Amino acid sequence: MIVRQLNDILGTERDIKAKTWNSRRLLLANENMGFSLHDTIIHPGTETEIWYQNHLEAVYCIEGEGEIELIPDGPTHPISPGMMYALDENDRHLLRAKTQLRMICVFNPPVTGQEVHDENGAYPAAAATDA
Q1: Per-residue pLDDT for 11 more than 70?
Q2: b/e 31-53 (16+ beta carbons within 10 angstroms → b)
Q3: What is the pLDDT of residues 57-101, one digit of tens each?
Q4: Contact of 110 with 57, CB cutoff 8 Å
Q5: Reaction catalysed (predicted)?
Q6: Apex 62 CA angle, 58 and 65, nearest 5
Q7: 66 phi and psi, to 5 degrees?
Q8: pTM (two decimals)
Q9: Among 28, 39, 41, 57, which one has the highest count of C-beta atoms within 10 angstroms of its own C-beta?
């Protein structure tokens, strides 16, 4: 059994900070669950282009207001607490936070924990990060 408190990972190597978001990584690839689980903060007033070419992602909003826009041609969906979206086709998207968003994210395949978005907004493929 794996038991972990969010407060125990804040400020550790599992607490990844980027310009527009912080990802607190609760479950990672090396824990062999078949997915990774993240508690993510999207900073208010930001826009982040993301394109997970190598991962599928499901997201559940527990705090804040924003929107997700599929690019290049939409649609755009509002984000608020209780809303879930799944990027089931490696969808390229813009994530906009009107207020601070707190999102629970699941990735398949799981991430290793140190990934950051590349120039396309993607995480590298798992094989490239397993070394």
Answers
A1: yes
A2: eeeebbbbbbbbeeebebebbbe
A3: 999 999 999 999 999 998 999 999 999 999 999 999 999 999 999
A4: no
A5: (2S)-4-acetamido-2-aminobutanoate = L-ectoine + H2O
A6: 95
A7: -175, -155
A8: 0.86
A9: 57
